[in-house]
Amino acid sequence: MTRSGSVKVPDGKLVEVTLTGDERIESARVTGDFFLEPPEARAELEAALEGKPLDVDREALVEAIEAVDAQFIGFDADHLAEATMEAIA
Amino acid sequence: MNLRVVDSGTYSEPVQQALERVLIDRLGDGEIEPTLRFWYRDGPAVPLGRFQAYADEVAADYVAKHDVDVVRRITGGGAMYVEPGAVITYSLYLPRSAVSDDVEASYAELDQFAIDALRDLGLDVRHEPLNDIAHPDGKIGGAAQLRTDDAVVHHTTMSYALDIAEMLRVLRIGEEKVSDKAVASAEKRVARINDHVDASRSEVIETMIDTAGDSYATVEGELSESTLADARTLADEQFATDEWNRQL
Fold first, then answer.
1. CA B212 to CA B31: how far, in whole Å?
2. pLDDT(B103) > 50
3. Name one GO molecular function term (chain A) (predicted).
4. Which of A23, B33, B54, B70 could bridge B46 with an S-S bond, Cβ 3.0-4.6 Å?
């Protein structure tokens, strides 16, 4: 099934996560009006979420997202983790 | 720093967006001078942010029926509705060494000449972080940037006399059922230059070229034939394709 979650960063951007998978995150799509340098790192953010069990804790998500070598502009790893937690809740 | 000012050339939306890629790459390769370009469009369009989902932003049936060209940008940020003559879009292509590494500060710095021009015309505008130009009545414009190793493109679109009712039909922020009401109502608040000043669109652009001259040594110029040929090819291969525009 497809699940989604989104976070509107106060005075910032919208980050939306759309996931598939029943026990684990099989595929993840990260969209929104944020900025990311380099832009190609969006695929790495998605890869950081994929494979995580649906009962993953938030800390583990933040750690995986922060391991991506990119500059997040208008959002941070916590926001993407929060949107992901909402999607898997 | 010298700044070439290009204030001519009407292109389709895919060619406009392809030019952003071509010009940032040419500047990074040292093939062109730092440049300020004003855009002239040939039809209504939606420049979509690089990371936005097409279906989330655009009323797909409406844009298909009304020939609104939806083109994904190389830059992040949000979708806008644009019409020829009703918005002012400009791009700055600069060496990375000339732009602050602090991204938030650089948005304010690179929009400053435009804010100065609008203030000279009597408009009460200010930079609003991260990337907006704001008026007490609402948002006048928004900017977006892409950085490569050697170059930065900073492009900004401001509403001059945009048809807000049409914007709300084209963009899904106009739909009542859009889930995040707070976002929708905030984004609907668009302020238009022409509601507050007497100046024509070309007078606003002339004023902007004047204020750019306060910070840079400006010289008039135009895009080369080879730049345009590259942009037209890239438009056909990428910016006019569903594969790029509907990738998300």
1. 22
2. yes
3. lipoate-protein ligase activity
4. B70
Nearest to A33 among B78, B103, B248 (CB): B78
CA A3 to CA A88: how far, in whole Å? 7
- The amino acid at residue B186 is A
Residues on chain B touching A34 (C-beta within 8 angstroms): 51, 76
**Summary mean pLDDT of chain B:** 94
Give the CA distances from residue B84 to residues B12, B87, B169, in Å, rounded to whole numbers and listed in that order: 10, 7, 17
Comparing alpha-carbon positions, the chain B residue that sits nearest to A74 is B130
B183 pLDDT tier (thresholds 50, 70, 90): low
Q: Which residues in chain B have their CB less than 8 angstroms from residue A16's CB?
A: 53, 56
Question: Please, are residues B51 and B72 in contact by the beta-carbon 8 Å criterion?
Answer: no
CA distance B5 to B219: 6
Tokens of B70: 């939806």
Question: In B65-84, which positions are buried (b, 16+ CB within 10 angstroms) versus exposed (e)?
Answer: eeebbbbbbbbbbbbbbbbe
**What pTM value is reported for the model?**
0.94
Does the domain at A2-88 match CATH 3.40.50.720? Answer given as no
Q: What are the helix (H) ranges across A4-72?
A: 41-49, 58-66
Nearest CA in chain A to B142: A33
**ipTM of the complex, rounded to two decimals:** 0.95
| Contact list, B183 vs chain A (CB under 8 Å) | 8, 14
Burial of B112 (C-beta count, 10 Å sphere; 0-12/13-18/19+): middle
Query: Domain ranges in chain A?
Result: 2-88
Question: Per the CB < 8 Å rule, is A31 touching B76?
Answer: no
Least CB–CB distance from A39: residue in B76, B79, B103 = B76
Which helix (DSSP H) or strand (DSSP E) does residue B243 occupy? helix B242-245
